[in-house]
Design brief:
By secondary structure, the protein is an alpha+beta fold. It has one domain. The chain contains five helices and 13 strands. It has helices spanning 2-26, 60-67, 96-99, 136-141, 320-340, and strands at 49-52, 72-81, 90-94, 106-110, 147-159, 163-172, 186-191, 194-195, 220-222, 236-238, 241-246, 253-262, 269-279. The strands form two sheets. Strands 1, 3, 4, 6, 9, 10, 11 and 13 form an eight-stranded antiparallel beta sheet that branches. Strands 2-5-12-7-8 form a five-stranded antiparallel beta sheet. Helix 1 runs antiparallel to helix 5. The longest helix is centred in the N-terminal third of the chain and has 25 residues, at 2-26. The termini are close together.
Amino acid sequence: MILIKYLFMKNILTLFFSFLVFLSFAQERKPDFVRELPPGLKSECAGFIFSHFDENNITESTLIETILGSDIQSYNLLNFHGTSGNNASAGLFTGGSDAGIGLDSGIILSTGFIRNALGPNEYAGATGVLELPGDEDLEALIPGYDTFDATILEFEFVPLFDTLYISFVFGSEEYNEWVGSPYNDVFGFFLNGENIALVPGTGDRISINSINNNNNSEYFIDNDDRPGPFCTEMDGYTVLMTATGIVTPGETHSIKLAIADAGDRSFDSWVFIGTEGFTGIDPGDPNEPNEPKNPGDHGDPDDSGDPGDDEPYPLPLGNWPIILIMLMIITFTFFKFRKSI
């Protein structure tokens, strides 16, 4: 009988501790809804200038033609999925070099509002909710995740070359506190249905969990401070990167440029594609470290970005008072039960 009671209590404790772990990840996040700068008022630092997709002056064709190199024979719009106007999830950008991203101009796609990427870094979780569905192709890249607020630009093109190069930068507000959590914002460049936006030298898709201070850190720039060392709201972003794919000259190919929130609609992410950065001209190796990578050592408080530091990120635990109370109840119950037997 005592053994049965002991096993029962052991199972109860296991369930309680499992529930605690679940709570640590399932906590409700608190997004920051960024105030909009009044007309004529500039950012406090030199950085991005955005032109919002508005279906009039900035159209789907404007977005496509901005990134196409002169070696693209023709193109045909297939689909655009996003928001327009003041809360646009797509548009044009200039001032990228001032913002520190390695691309001076091009187009931007976002899981929220493109304007939320304006610097300086003032918020822990800048968020624009699009109320749009996610994307199945992106969900296939991160099995087990649901996606939300997808922005997609999809078109056909006829190249005059045999190798496609796309110059881009990916950034997110999910860095650094949500790395390794159930929130894993993701994007993809689907060439003829296959994603070519990969971590260099691997088959891994690019997301906040695959490039950060701990994983593939040579491709990561940490801006997670208030304000950060660079003039952008993004808490972290990749160095200038290149996606590469094989094509056939003179034949029609399809490309789908897509980005989405994963896990929930909070905390924006962005992908930037350079002007004439969709081309057959090899940009060389853009993946050189941007020095100083983290000026003034504005990195993770655990210095997990330092070379040779393999310490994992702390779990994004919250609601500590509730967790501590539950631990006390479990401990008290356990010792009371032991005393009774």
